[in-house]
């Protein structure tokens, strides 16, 4: 039985995710902005104000494709360094 053909191509996925603000790809590492960050002032978690909330189910499906089928690593970060 032959394997299922993916509906994604790596180059198309990378181009699509490059247009998103809440994800950055560096080499073979996918950096996702965390939903919440720690506040020393409030001594608890607060909403990450850096997030633009521009990732949906399709974007997460593309990220899963890169991780599960193309060997990328996924990390959550509080902010992107410039």
Helical segment tally?
Answer: 2
- Give the structural class: alpha+beta
Spell out the helices and strands N to C: HEEEEHE
Mean pLDDT level:
93
Q: Ranges with pLDDT <50 over ≥5 residues?
A: none
Number of domains: 1
End-to-end distance: 47 Å
Commentary on this structure:
This protein is α+β, with helices and mostly antiparallel strands and 82 residues long. The chain has one domain. The protein is built from 2 helices and 5 strands. It has helices at 10-18, 57-70; strands at residues 23-26, 29-33, 36-39, 44-47, 73-77. A 3-stranded mixed β-sheet has the order 1-2-5. A two-stranded antiparallel ribbon has the order 3-4. Strand 1 (23-26) and strand 2 form a beta hairpin. The longest helix has 14 residues, at 57-70. The mean pLDDT is 93.
Helix and strand topology:
Layout: H1 10-18, E1 23-26, E2 29-33, E3 36-39, E4 44-47, H2 57-70, E5 73-77
Parallel strand pairs: 2-5
Antiparallel strand pairs: 1-2, 3-4
Helix pairs in contact: 1-2
Compact description:
The chain contains two helices and five strands. It is an alpha+beta fold and 82 residues long. It has one domain.
Name some characteristics of this structure.
82 residues, alpha+beta, 3-stranded mixed β-sheet, two-stranded antiparallel sheet
